[in-house]
Amino acid sequence: MRLLARRLFTALLAAVPLWAAATPIDLAYNPSNTGPAYAWRLDAVRVSADGRKLQVRTQPSGSLPGGMINLGSYPWWITLVAYDQGAGRTGNGDRWRGNAALPAPTGRWATVATLAPGSSTVYRVRPIATGGVVRGLPGVTWSGTVQGTLTTDGTRGPLDASHLVDFDLHIVGDQH
Q1: H-helix or E-strand containing 12?
Q2: Quick one: residue 52, left, alpha or beta (phi over 0 = left, psi -120 to 50 = alpha)?
Q3: Are 113 and 53 contacting, i.e. CB atoms less than 8 angstroms apart?
Q4: pLDDT, tens digit, for every residue of 103-125?
Q5: Rounded (to 5) percent helix, strand, coil in the chain
Q6: If you write DSSP's letter for every residue of 26-68 in order, what string do you get?
Q7: 97 contacts 76 by C-beta, under 8 angstroms
Q8: Does the reported pTM lie above 0.85?
């Protein structure tokens, strides 16, 4: 029995090197931890005419930059998507600082979220890969995916922050 236990322990150590282990992270962003609603920013955001897509403008229109969804304020915030400075990006600002480039869609609008089945106001965010550094821990990085939901008041067409009723976003991944 001891020999079997020793072999099992040795096999487990060989399969999972302790120095390469990643620590799982799940960073939550919602109205209760990102600050007051006046800190929420939706620029050039719309719900499609059929109500199935929540979209952000990707290209400038005249003197207006592309759009963005930014929720919260220092020290805990998330930029779900921003096309306000050229190429699209996503990011967050807290201990886990990160940023990721978004692919540039061919049209003028990028679909950020789609209507959840059985709902008329809840939109599921399309997963967005991101990563960055852990502030205060030199050499420690993280990678993950932004996912979650945005809930509107049911408005179709242009949206601003007053049309956002709730959100529950998470960056799920690993700290290395």
Answers
A1: helix 2-15
A2: alpha
A3: yes
A4: 666 568 888 999 999 999 999 99
A5: 15, 50, 35
A6: EEEE-TTTS--GGG-EEESEEE-TTS-EEEEE-S-BTTB---E
A7: no
A8: no
